[in-house]
Amino acid sequence: MKKQNLYSFGGFVMMMIASVFGNAPQESPKEVNQIPVQQVATTSVISTTTTKSDAVATNTVSTDYTYYTVSSVVDGDTVKINMDGKIETLRLIGLDTPETVDPRKVVQCFGKEASNKAKELLVGKKVRIETDPSQGSKDKYNRMLAYIYLENGLFYNKYMIEQGYAHEYTYNIPYKYQSEFKEAVKKAQDSKLGLWSPDTCNGITTSAKKTTTSKSNVVAPIVKTETKTNSPAIQSEVSKFYTSSYGSSKYYYPEKCDGWKSLNVNYLKSFDSLDKLLVAYPTRVMSPQCE
């Protein structure tokens, strides 16, 4: 009996011990590898910021152009620029200004005005260049063929046409901005700007600028061929005038001058009057062989 009671008491004690230790708090995992919530958030922000910065640096595309200084102006359609220490002559595409420097010709009507405007806009300024694959890189005189833009965005070639300082000029093959330039010259004509004004050249620039009211409209001294160019006698005696539409052609021929007969028939153009011919081809002058 006593032994049985002893066993019962021992069992009771063991149950009490088990109960006490069973309810003891569990040891929390070690915090060696834990990162506080605040620290995790901070790390994430730093990583994101770095990634954005790298993306901006990688995706930036430069829109800068290369600009060159204009060293001098030959006339309104020809300029010289400094390209990395080398002087390059540019013949500007799509326009033709009255002559001022050709030793074979008089200074043509509105030529000085066009040249002076070019100097005002360009000398000492910087321009960027646009070439045109349809026109080739250089002309037969080894001049670079190009359009030019000033740093303020002014499209010089078009500006000179739309302000009446130049004729639109197509050399043999249509160029990139031909339709745009033809529209510009039409607006200048309609507004009678520059060389299109009746007070200047009335669109005919092949002679010297009018400074008198004489019938011949020729100012002395003047080259003999130019005197014939606008001579009323020639126009009254001749029923037709001829020229070639070929891009490099320079001359026209009165009907009585046999020179026109040697022109290629594929390019031959005839007109009932000299005025009509010069409206269509304003840079033409009478052939020396017709004197």
Helix/strand layout:
Layout (H helix, E strand, L loop, with lengths): L1 H21 L14 H23 L8 E8 L2 E6 L2 E7 L2 E2 L14 H12 L3 E5 L13 E7 L5 H7 L4 E2 L9 H14 L32 H6 L2 H6 L3 E4 L6 E4 L13 E4 L2 H7 L4 E2 L5
Parallel strand pairs: 3-6, 9-11
Antiparallel strand pairs: 1-2, 1-5, 2-3, 4-7, 5-6, 8-9, 8-10
Structure in words:
It is a single chain. This protein has 291 residues and is α+β, with helices and mostly antiparallel strands. Among the domains are: 68-196, OB fold (Dihydrolipoamide Acetyltransferase, E2P), CATH 2.40.50; 224-290, no CATH class. The chain is built from eight helices and eleven strands. A five-stranded mixed β-barrel has the order 1-2-3-6-5. Helix 4 (156-162) packs parallel to helix 5 (178-191). The longest helix is centred in the first third of the chain and has 23 residues, at 37-59. The protein starts with a helix and ends in a 5-residue tail after the last strand.
Count of alpha/pi helices:
8
Largest sheet: 5 strands, mixed, barrel
What is the first-to-last residue Cα distance?
162 Å
CATH architecture of the domain at 68-196: Beta Barrel
